[in-house]
Design brief:
Elements (H helix, E strand, L loop, with lengths): L2 H7 L40 H14 L3 E5 L2 H12 L5 E5 L4 H10 L6 E5 L15 E7 L11 H10 L3 E5 L4 H4 L9 E5 L13 E5 L1 H14 L5 H12 L1 H21 L3 E5 L9 H7 L6 E6 L2 H11 L4 E2 L9 E3 L11 H6 L7 E4 L5 H14 L1
Parallel strand pairs: 2-3, 2-4, 4-5, 5-6, 10-11
Antiparallel strand pairs: 1-7, 6-7, 8-9, 9-12, 11-12
The chain binds pyridoxal-5'-phosphate.
The site of pyridoxal-5'-phosphate (PLP) has 15 residues, from helix 3.
C-alpha cells in the first residue's frame, strides 16, 4: 500500500478496549506474570508500553526497516546509536557539515570515550578511502546539510560502506520518510529528530531509529540503560502527528519550491539554496532520489546582514525561531542561532555567511507565504 495509507494503518492492529486511537498509557509499570523473564518486563523506561509499540511498528513499516525505536530526542537517537554501534578504539567517517549537536558530540565527547572520527566531504567520494583506518567501523551522513542544503553522494556512501565492511548511518530528518527512504537504497540505520517533520507540530522533542532488528535491538538495550525513553504523552502526540505526515510534507515541499523559485527571480536576492531548484548543484540527484526536496531553503540578500535583519523584521507570517518541520513557517539567521557557537571564520569556511537566512516553510497557503515575502522584500 502507499505510504499515505501505511502512515495511518500500519502498526494499528491492537485496538485497546475498542479505542480507534491508542490511548495514553500513563503508567510507569505494568503487571507481569509468574515465569516471565527480564525481556518480558514492561516498564516505561524500557520503551515498551503500547504507546511505544505502535510507534515502533508504524515507523519500521513506513521506513522499510525490520525494527524501529523512539527516543527522548533526536540527539538521544543519534548519540545512543553511535555509542551502541561503536566501542572504544573504533573510528568513524562522518560528513563535515553536520547538525551542531552531532558535530559537538563526535568532536568533543566521543574522543573522551575512545571513539575518534575523521570528517569527509559528502560530495568528494574519491577522497574517502584515504581516511579509512583498520579500525574504521561506520560512515555517517545527513540527507541534506543545514543550512546550505547540500545533498551528499548518498549512493556512493552505500557503495563505499559495502565495499569496506562499514555500517552506514544517515540522519534523514530533513527529508522525512515521505521524501526519501534511505533503507531502500541500502543504508543500514536511519535516524530522525522526530521533533521535526515526523511529529510536525513543534510541541515535543523526540527521536527515532530504524534499521535491522539486530542493530535496533542493540541500540534499545543501550537506551534502556542510558534512560533516554520517550514519555508516553509525547508518544501519543508523535503518533497523532505521524498520521498526517504525507499531507503535511506535500505542502512543505510545495511552499519551499514556490518560494525558492520566487526568491531566485528577485533582484535583491543573490543566492537561493534549495535542492528542488534546477540551479542547485545536486538537483539531478535530489530529483532521482527524493519525492520532494523538503521544506527548508536558505538565501543571501544583496544588502548583507542589515538587509537580512530588515527582512526578518518585516515578515509577518514566519516566527523568528530555530527548528523546522512544524506547521508554521520559521525563519532564522544561522550565524546568530544554530551556528552561533562557531567563529565567523569557521562559519565562512563551511559557506555559512553572517547574512545567510534560513527559512523552514510551514504548511500555510503558498500564495500567502509568497505574498508575505514579497511585501517584506519591498521593505528591505
Ligand atoms: N538532526 C538534525 C538534522 C536536526 O536538525 C536536529 C535538531 O535541530 C537534530 C538532529 C537534533 O534533534 P533534537 O533537537 O530533537 O534532539
Amino acid at each position: 500500500m502507499h505510504i499515505q495509507t501505511r502512515l495511518i494503518h500500519a502498526g494499528e492492529e491492537q485496538k485497546i478496549a475498542g479505542a480507534v486511537v491508542t490511548p495514553i498509557f500513563q503508567s510507569a509499570t505494568f503487571t507481569s506474570e509468574e515465569g516471565q523473564g527480564y525481556d518480558d518486563i514492561r516498564y516505561l523506561r524500557l520503551n515498551n508500553t503500547p504507546n511505544h509499540n505502535v510507534l515502533h511498528a508504524k515507523l519500521a513499516d513506513i521506513c522499510g526497516g525490520e525494527a524501529a525505536l523512539v527516543t527522548g530526542s533526536g540527539m538521544a537517537a543519534i548519540v545512543t546509536a553511535l555509542l551502541a554501534l561503536l566501542k572504544s578504539g573504533d573510528h568513524l567517517l562522518i560528513q563535515d557539515c553536520l547538525y551542531g549537536g552531532t558535530h559537538s558530540f563526535v568532536s568533543q565527547d566521543a574522543p573522551d570515550l575512545g571513539i575518534n572520527c575523521d570528517f569527509i566531504a559528502g560530495n568528494a567520494p574519491e577522497t574517502w578511502a584515504a581516511k579509512l583506518k583498520p579500525e574504521t567501523k561506520a560512515i555517517y551522513v545527513e540527507t541534506m546539510t543545514n543550512p546550505l542544503l547540500e545533498v551528499a553522494d548518498l549512493e556512493a556512501v552505500v557503495a563505499f560502506a559495502r565495499a569496506h565492511g562499514l555500517l552506514s548511518l544517515i540522519d534523514n530528518t530533513f527529508a522525512s520518510p515521505c521524501n526519501f527512504r534511505p533503507l531502500e537504497i541500502g543504508f543500514d540505520i536511519e535516524l530522525h529528530s522526530a521533533t521535526k517533520y515526523l511529529n510536525g507540530h513543534s510541541d515535543i522533542v523526540a527521536g527515532a531509529i530504524v534499521g535491522a532488528a539486530e542493530h535496533v535491538g542493540a541500540i534499545a538495550h543501550k537506551l534502556n540503560r542510558f534512560g533516554g525513553t520517550l514519555d508516553t504523552h509525547a508518544c501519543f502526540l508523535l503518533h497523532r502527528g505521524l498520521k498526517t505526515l504525507s499531507l503535511r510534507m506535500r505542502q512543505h515541499d510545495e511552499n519551499a519550491l514556490q518560494l525558492a523559485r520566487m526568491l531566485a527571480e528577485d533582484p535583491q536576492v543573490v543566492q537561493v539554496n534549495y535542492p528542488g531548484l534546477q540551479s542547485h548543484p545536486q538537483y539531478e540527484r535530489a530529483k532521482r532520489l527524493f519525492a520532494g526536496a523538503g521544506g527548508v531553503l536558505s538565501l543571501e540578500l544583496r544588502g548583507g546582514v542589515a538587509a537580512a535583519e530588515r527582512l526578518l523584521a518585516a515578515l509577518q507570517l514566519p516566527a523568528s525561531a530555530p527548528s523546522l518541520g512544524g506547521v508554521e513557517t520559521l525563519i532564522t539567521r544561522p550565524a546568530t542561532t544554530s551556528h552561533s557557537s562557531m567563529s565567523p571564520a569557521e562559519r565562512a569556511a563551511i559557506g555559512v555567511g553572517d547574512s545567510l537566512v534560513r527559512v523552514a516553510c510551514g504548511i500555510e497557503a503558498t500564495e500567502d507565504l509568497c505574498a508575505d515575502f514579497t511585501q517584506a522584500l519591498a521593505e528591505v
